[in-house]
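[Meeting: bench + compute handoff]

Bench side (C.D.) handed over the final construct sequence. Compute side (W.E.) agreed to return the predicted structure before the next meeting so the bench team could plan truncations. Sequence as handed over:
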Amino acid sequence: MEHLFERQARLNVMKRPVRIVTYVFLIPGLIFAIPAWFVPAIASVFSQVIFFCLCGIGVAREIVRLRLMKSYLTQGIYQQTVQKVARLTIIGYVVAWLIAFVMLSIPNAPGYLFVLLLVWSGGVGLGVTRMNRLAKQIDPAYVTMGEIERAWWKR
């Protein structure tokens, strides 16, 4: 029962900073999307910029979670749970953005690189899911980013 209260406390601590980070990156991307929808010359640049913004949101959210949980958890549990998951997630976002950047820059490569992007994203997604399961076994009050986002939308 105690871990349920701890889990709710962690959710409450993390909802607001994650929401702020998401809006800081998402609002400029959406503002840029409106003219890009109507002007084809901007559309090619838009896809790179919006993908960069989406990957930036993910990296920034993980950094915020790392900072908050470092002061909240003991060093051992922090290193075994939050830090491992955040490292894999950040590497996943950065490499996905690099693959997409190359894919949109080289005219003949989009088909192959798109498959590589899908395989990479799926592999990282499965890895993060597995690490989240292990983290929940180590720390029953562990909060995943998906749980933070669901709590955020429920409000």
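W.E. noted at the follow-up: Residues 25 and 108 are 31 Å apart (CA to CA). C.D. will use this when planning the next construct.
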